[in-house]
Amino acid sequence: MAKAQKSITQLAAMAFTAACFVLAQAVPAIADLGRVEVSHSSATLHSEYAVAEAGETVWLGLELTPRAGWHSYWKNYGDSGAAPLLYWTLPEGVTAGEPLYPTPHRMPIGPLMNYGYEEPSVLLVPLVIADDYQGKTIPIALEVEWLVCEIECVPQDGKWNAEIPVSQLKADPAAGAVFQAARTALPEMAIWAADLTVYPAQSRLKVHVSQTEVAGVQSAYFFPEGEGVTEYAAEQQWSLTDDGLFVDMKRLQGYVDATSGKGVLVLSFEGGSVRSIEVDAVLVQEPLVVVGAGASPSIHAALPLWQALVFALLGGIVLNLMPCVFPVLSLKAFSFIAANSKTERGRKQEGWSYTAGIWVSFMIIVAVLLIIKSGGAAIGWGFQLQEPAFVGSLVLLMLLVALSLSGMFNITVGVEGAGQGLASKDGNKGAFFQGVLAALVATPCTAPLMAPAIGYALTQSAPIVFLIFSMLAIGLALPFLALSYSPALAKLMPRPGPWMEKLKEALAFPMYLTAAWLLYVFNLQAGATATLALLVALIVAIFGVWVWQSFSGKISQSIAVVFMVGAIAGIIYQPFSAPIGTASQGKSEIQPYSETTLAELLDDGETVFAYFTAEWCITCKVNEQVALFTDDTQALMAANNIKLLKGDWTNRNDEIANLLADYGRAGVPLYLLFPKGQAEAIILPEILTPGIIADAIADIK
């Protein structure tokens, strides 16, 4: 009997054990390692695996749930906030990796922009277990500090102490949904190469992606992982071109240097779909000095290539109307009058020769500009006019052309005496030379539509730079190129006759005026002593030309060559003295521009009008006379207590060159109106009128 009872007892125990085993298999394991409730949020530590295994990686998930209406933060929190801090205590042989964050959201708070999450977010953390780990469990001690905010911010913290058994790897079924949702919220792994170029006041992300790969994209936004890339509250601009996807971001002045090209790119598509993609861009620091307050990112940096090409073409056409180009245009107009007696083929050849002269000159100038910029120098369009030697040489060239037109000697520039045809060879040479002259005197000018095209070009690769400046050259040459191809337009030109000789002599005077203007620029750059030396060199060169014209024979011509070469060498290689200062505008209240002066005025709550000019910029001088320094404009500025700053770019000035680059400009003029105490400037057009200035001032009241 006792034996039977013992057997029944054993059978019951076995049945109970089996039942427990079945229940253990049927009931899911607890899906978290602990939950912490704090004042304004809660946090839960999840484990994807119920059992870990040596040599494997197991994933933990830290779920942060802010109170309704509150939010937590991404790894880069933006303007204000704090990223979560995780402090691990783990046994030897177990290490915790960096947490993976879900794609953040933009959270504007007043004038600031923060990055984070308004809803629960799960940070995924890998635990890497060594192959030789011998422990039966993994004891985990974790302390977390995080911040949640609404209007006010409240620090939160929590602690966890838990264990994960170690045997054969086994997933926790109850955790599957949590980790699946967490992985869905992560950005996609990096799939495209990218570059992140950081300029003083702007950053540009270039993603090497084809248009078909992101067809239908409606918007793009980049969340930088590190600081120093962007001003978070500023609007980002994007464009999709044949070269890739571009995102342009404004940077804060004097901000920390960028140290990482990583981040998350969020793309929105037609139909409402969204993709977030990790970016691991190659970081490129632009070697320019950071400028002062008020610099803005280039609003033209996101300009599509086709639009930059159109702007360059139209800007070149408009450039024909700029004052600096008028003298050479008069020469070209005269040559087309003379060409009425030529064949249609001859006119076309001259039109293309003129175009070639402009194009070749532009390509040489751009090549030199790129070579100098590759060495880190801050220069822009018209940089050659900042070199006294070049300006002095240009004075000599203009003077010789003018004297030739006056009849002192003959330099073949495409025009001959009245009633005489031109030999094809001489005519084409003359047209080419006139194109060279047009290019040389056009470079100080920046016509409307040119500024965005040139600003865009100088941030691109060399082939794009040459392409855009080629369109600019074609635009400058286009009116005369069209004239050479249009018999109807050619018939409207006056017939050749004796009157042309007098017209040719009259056309010398614009060239004399151009030479006088260049001499004035030279004097400002190099000083009185250098100007006297230049005048002597001009006289010596003219004497050499006179000897060449007046006497025949090899000895006389050799003497003439010595005089002319000596004059040119004297212009190029003379030791220029220090400039005696720039011309006064007669306005004692004008202060010279510096980034420090601008910052101080803005800090004092002043309204500032900063204009950037050069003595060799005729467009600048015209604007100053007809709009900026009129009595009405000056009275308006005085009435509104507007402070004037003048940035003089006559001589090379890296500080001004950097500022021009920050605004997407490669040359002057540039006009900036800073509202009272604000670092963001209103950019005025390149061609000013009193009404434009008055309207801009009225808009900031």
What would your notes on this structure say?
This protein is of the alpha+beta class. It is built from 19 helices and 26 strands. The strands form 7 sheets. A 5-stranded antiparallel beta sheet has the order 1-2-4-10-7. The protein has a 5-stranded mixed beta sheet with strand order 17-18-15-14-21, with no helix packed on it. A hairpin with a 3-residue loop joins β1 and β2. The radius of gyration is 37 Å and the shape is elongated.
Question: What is the strand and helix layout of this fold?
Answer:
Layout (H helix, E strand, L loop, with lengths): L1 H25 L5 E6 L3 E7 L1 E3 L5 E10 L5 E7 L6 E5 L4 E3 L8 E5 L2 E6 L3 E9 L7 E13 L3 E13 L4 E2 L4 H9 L9 E5 L3 E6 L9 E8 L12 E5 L2 E7 L11 E8 L4 E7 L1 E4 L19 H15 L6 H13 L5 H31 L13 H19 L17 H19 L7 H8 L4 H24 L1 H6 L6 H8 L1 H19 L1 H23 L3 H20 L17 E2 L2 H9 L3 E7 L4 H11 L2 H9 L2 E7 L5 H9 L7 E5 L7 E3 L5 H10 L2
Parallel strand pairs: 14-21, 22-24, 23-24
Antiparallel strand pairs: 1-2, 2-4, 3-13, 4-10, 5-9, 6-11, 7-10, 8-9, 11-12, 14-15, 15-18, 16-19, 17-18, 19-20, 23-25, 25-26
